[in-house]
Design brief:
Distance between the termini: 27 Å
Largest sheet: 5 strands, antiparallel
Number of helices: 14
Strand content: 5-15%
Length: 304
């Protein structure tokens, strides 16, 4: 995740994902590369092929704003992808950083979500859980403080059953992680480097998704869960940036009132209140880089 030719790599991956017909170009009979050719991107962006080649090879890393806008149009980038392209071309000057401090959820937000009847958690920069309420833990032990939802998603086999749309969920999670890194300007954060490195080594699925360089800042949507006690749940999620703690996100889940998922979530709440929804695992949930231990957060209740 260092400097290198990140801009060039991103241009290449985007170029390979644009079909010629989408760019109103003839598909051709003998195309040896997926997507567009370099000269075709250059033509669409209104720059010379030689100049575009220098950009993709990392020999020129300072394109003008006009060139970046033209490239974004040529490569059919959405607003998030275009912003990411600009961030790669205009990296922030690295500041002298102190050793990263252990992240900790604020006492106020922890007390607030403990009063809620729907699952909620506070996530840190590396998507580790810093605080959560009982309903989040009832949803999954991997949502507990001290656990990292991203690591569990790729490394714990049972999560393939827990998420009914595991492949779509993994793709969204990696694209979201890349957007967080870009927005925070933290390409050189050692905790993120360690997390990405570990997952790249241990998960072929993560390695392939990370190489695609997709970027999506998705803060709302629907997650499809198969809970071992109450069955299938279609839960809407919302993510809110915490202004008092840069880099931390409050994540909430809810079901549509009157739906089967709503009734099942209510049942899960009753089971959690009686202590029947806890499914302890030997050794507890896994920890990950940048994630505080549950005891360090001061939280008595684990969860997402």
């Amino acid at each position: 995740m260092g400097s290198g030719s990140l801009l060039g790599d991103y241009l290449r991956t985007r170029r390979e994902r644009v079909r010629p017909e989408d760019a109103r170009l003839p598909p051709g009979e003998r195309r040896r590369v997926p997507g567009l050719r370099r000269e075709e991107v250059a033509l669409l962006a209104g720059v010379s092929t030689e100049y575009y080649l220098r950009l993709e090879q990392g020999r020129d890393r300072h394109p003008s704003d006009q060139v970046l806008e033209s490239l974004a149009r040529a490569l059919r980038l959405d607003d998030t992808e275009a912003r990411y392209l600009t961030q790669l071309a205009r990296p922030a000057t690295p500041a002298r950083r102190r050793a990263p401090r252990a992240e900790k959820a604020g006492a106020g937000v922890s007390a607030l979500i403990d009063q809620w009847s729907t699952p909620a958690q506070v996530q840190g920069l590396c998507l580790g859980t810093l605080a959560a309420n009982p309903m989040a833990v009832a949803l999954s032990p991997y949502f507990a403080p001290g656990a990292n939802t991203l690591s569990a998603l790729f490394l714990e086999p049972e999560m393939r059953e827990f998420y009914r749309d595991w492949h779509a969920t993994t793709a969204k999670a990696v694209a979201y992680l890349r957007s967080l890194i870009a927005d925070a300007g933290r390409n050189d954060d050692p905790r993120l480097i360690e997390l990405v490195g570990e997952l790249s080594l241990r998960s072929e699925r993560f390695r392939g998704l990370w190489a695609r360089q997709d970027v999506r800042h998705s803060t709302s949507g629907v997650t499809l869960i198969r809970h071992p006690l109450v069955g299938d749940l279609d839960l809407h999620y919302e993510k809110f940036a915490l202004a008092s703690a840069p880099g931390q996100m409050l994540v909430t889940y809810h079901a549509e009132p009157g739906s089967d998922s709503y009734e099942r979530l209510q049942l899960l709440g009753h089971l959690a209140a009686r202590g029947d929804a806890r499914r302890p695992r030997p050794g507890g949930p896994p920890t990950a880089p940048g994630t505080a231990d549950a005891r360090a957060t001061g939280g008595s209740v684990p969860g997402r």
